[in-house]
Amino acid sequence: MPQHSSRIALITGAASGIGRSVAERLALQDGAMVCIVDREADAAREAAHSIEAAGGRAQTFVADLADSAAVQRMLNRIDAEIGMPDIVINNAGIAATIPVLDYPLSHWQLTMAVNVTAPMLIIQHVLRGMKARGWGRVVNVASISGVRAGTGRLGYGTSKAALLALTRQFAVEAAEWGVTVNAVAPGPIETPMVKQMHGGSSTDIYRDMMPMRRYGAVADIAHAIAFLASENSGFITGETLAVDGGFLASGLLVRDLFAATPLAVAAHS
Fold it and tell me: Record's family (predicted)?
């Protein structure tokens, strides 16, 4: 029997990209009833129908995560129609590449609302049910931009750093209830949002900074999230798993360093 056949999974931003891949994985391989949460109604319904056509279980919940009242209504509807979630994947996020001197307050507030406040409200809500059952899995989709600063990432990078801190804060208090709270930090992944941020010639610049010299696939992130949401991850909490092709580990990456003039070796006596 699939490990999550009796469980309910809530995935935000699940109409496309990483979120959809995660929803398909949890529903079709692990047997969970998945709640497709997204602001794009048509895309969310198509994702749910696709899962159902493949033999899985899915239902759509449309909400604008920038609106705290709408988030609460969505959570109440899930509780009433499906039941309290056992698994939460906070995947939805927004981003923009803007110089620090030009970054507008309105976009800062919107970014924090979607990337930080909405996950906080969702986790706070579902933890009550998870605590009562003595089991739960929360996985927050952050970014390597929350670990290492980058050009144009004032709002996005700061919000993802806050999401990583939020992960640890919830983890330490929820651990004794049998609930784990972890995060994944994707590197450059082939998603519509990343393509928009990395458009044009900058695509090659980002690819050259990757030790694996390629962008990741949404399935790479889905596999990592599925592990952190599984029974096998029960003693892991408060952690951030980078899924980035070695980007964070690389430090100063110099291409073809050893193909040039041989480096002098210092003698030691």
Answer: Belongs to the short-chain dehydrogenases/reductases (SDR) family.
CA 54 to chain centre: 24
Q: Which residue has the tokens 């056949």?
A: 5
> Which tokens hold the place of 245?
């092709």
Confidence of residue 1 (pLDDT cuts 50, 70, 90): confident
- The parent domain of residue 99 ranges over 8-259
Residue 218 located in a structural domain: yes
Judge whether 269 lies within some domain. Answer: no
% of the chain exceeding 90 in pLDDT: 78
86 part of a folded domain: yes
pLDDT at 256 over 60: yes
**Residue type at position 140:** N
Cβ burial, residue 264 (10 Å; 0-12/13-18/19+):
exposed
Total tally of structural domains belonging to the chain = 1
Catalytic residue among 103, 156, 206, 215: 156
Q: Which of 82-91, 200-209, 224-233 has the lowest mean pLDDT?
A: 200-209
Question: Which CATH number goes with the domain that contains 94?
Answer: 3.40.50.720
Active site residue 156: yes
How far is residue 80's CA from residue 221's CA, in Å, rounded to a whole number?
30
- Residue written as tokens 């705290």? 68
In a domain, 2, yes or no: no
Strand order in the sheet with 240-243: 57-62, 33-38, 8-12, 87-90, 136-141, 179-186, 240-243
